[in-house]
């Protein structure tokens, strides 16, 4: 993204609760909002480090808590690719919980094919594609969804490989998985959802890639 411009930038958020998490904190904030305009009183570290500090910007929030890859086409109905624009995408976590963690067949390949079709049809570029974080912080002693950790982690890696490839092709990869491994349980609420701190850390990861 060019660093400075007088032309308004549109930021489109797509996907799941990673980007649609305002109802999981008392301030009603989510990563897209913080990325566009920081809440200076809550996060003074990011004062002046938001998109609004560089250029006119608006948020087109379309991500929906609970969404899977199959829901993405519905999120872009009526979307027009105003220029300039960027898209933030987080998907895959709910697909893993819905069965891909235990997948022993073509499930991940089907996920990859649906994601590919969606991104090929999406008119917004670039797309910043997030990997899926791990609420257990890599600790196999924390059972999650009753799946054998060896199988679950292998499929998690497969989904993240799909997401990374998509990011490399259509814009950039935002490695939330790696970033959240540096965090702690305060980044989450209700086991897997981003807390207020988590929303800010998601913002941090996207911001670093956008400003790279």
Number of strands: 7
**How large a portion of the residues is in β-strands, by DSSP E?**
5-15%
Q: Oligomeric state of the chains?
A: single chain
Over the alpha carbons, how many angstroms does the gyration radius reach? Answer: 17 Å
CATH class: Alpha Beta
Query: What value does the average pLDDT take?
Result: 94
Total individual domains: 1
Strand order of the largest sheet: 2-1-3-4-5
Going by CATH, the architecture would be 3-Layer(aba) Sandwich
Task: State the gist of this model.
The protein contains 7 helices and 7 strands; from the N terminus they run βαβαβααβαβαββα.
Write the layout of secondary structure elements.
Elements: E1 9-15, H1 31-36, E2 57-61, H2 72-75, E3 85-90, H3 93-97, H4 107-121, E4 127-130, H5 149-170, E5 171-174, H6 176-180, E6 188-189, E7 193-194, H7 196-210
Parallel strand pairs: 1-2, 1-3, 3-4, 4-5
Antiparallel strand pairs: 6-7
Helix pairs in contact: 4-5
Structure explained in plain terms:
By secondary structure, the chain is of the alpha/beta class. The protein has a single domain, classed as Rossmann fold (3-Layer(aba) Sandwich). The protein is built from seven helices and seven strands. Strands 2-1-3-4-5 form a five-stranded parallel beta sheet. A two-stranded antiparallel ribbon has the order 6-7. A hairpin with a 3-residue loop joins strand 6 and strand 7. Helix 4 packs parallel to helix 5. The longest helix has 22 residues. The relative contact order is 0.18. The model has no long low-confidence stretch (mean pLDDT 94). This is SGNH hydrolase-type esterase domain-containing protein. It comes from uncultured Thermomicrobiales bacterium. GO terms for molecular function: hydrolase activity, acting on ester bonds. InterPro entries: SGNH_hydro, SGNH_hydro_sf.
